[in-house]
């Protein structure tokens, strides 16, 4: 089975000329000329990036998802490849309804019609890992039932094994292979896929995001019905709305697109900086808009997390960018160890200024954040900057926000929209509000500790006294030992002198 799959991969690679991407790295051109004579009948009108995208689509959904993930790694890929791979769509025909019913019956232990009041046999969405059916719970609640594709674990295991082999080979035979870190990329992809294969994990992500935005005027998140969920089945509230890419339909229902675009920016920065937990797959297919203008989030398989250090570091860098304080940005990178300590601050500052200065005071329609990020990555490589893994999803999400903003309001200025939010957040983190919040957080602990304080102080002082007495005792013992050693050395010296005197007397007597 694996050999057949490998043969197909090789066949598709040759058909779309992917081998030429490796041969082009041979500066002498000799190997390419020999190879082209062997495959003399091949000719390609498309660019290498288009051929790569078509090849991945031919190889199936797992390779499509791999290409999608690669498109976010603009720190590794040339711009033409990253731009083309971003066009990949996870379009997969649905699997037969009978299989979905079998999965559900196996999980619930009884027929689907005994579990749900109504279950629609025709799926409403299908992807490489799962598909979705609408249904009703026994109490009449409308739900969406997500069912894992049968046998997908086996398919993924085979394809991942082949990707790992391909990564090793690529590192060995392609000069650029080591810089692209293919084995690390495949390991990262494996982690994402394994997370998506556990629908309980996705349900937990959905529940967490819903709790973070409870009663929010900006974002709606479906409720999870845990009694109906398992590793290969997820049941959540059915959401009604218009897909965010259908701008004409949004206008028809009276949605203010400018306000919607600004709300999208606020939602993104709220998730990142307030919660450190953000939806990392915000393409138009995963976002609906409610009749009241609120966003509706769907598909929670890929989520990003940031710790407090990441959030503070990012916020300071964003604010420094907004204030055009490029020296502060350069110093922050050096202090964080993201670039080597030997880096000259003035040179790094100048490089950052060259990339970022042209983008300010322009509407979003005149700015390509993709190109800006690309130039920043090129600058990063020049200064040996290591791309932080926890920020890769953040970069991808920011690019998605750019695309949504362009569709909704081409005049949106992302910087001006985000700056007030970040300043408020920084004040909350570092101002008097942060002090008050810290006191409130610690008050329960203090309430339990304060009554014990006199006893704890007494114990501490008593322990300190005991420690001092013990130290003094050890010093006295050392002094006595030194005196004993001194007396012993004195006796040895006298004995040695006596022996020497006897030996001298004997020699003189002779």
From TrEMBL:
It is found in: Cell membrane. Pfam families: ABC1. GO terms for molecular function: ATP binding; protein kinase activity. InterPro entries: ABC1_dom (IPR004147), Kinase-like_dom_sf (IPR011009), UbiB (IPR010232), UbiB_bact (IPR045308), UbiB_kinase (IPR050154). The chain crosses the membrane at residues 488-508. ATP binds at residues 124-132, 146. CDD domains: UbiB. Residues 88-330 form the ABC1 atypical kinase-like domain. This is Probable protein kinase UbiB. One of its GO terms (biological process) is regulation of ubiquinone biosynthetic process. SUPFAM superfamilies: Protein kinase-like (PK-like).
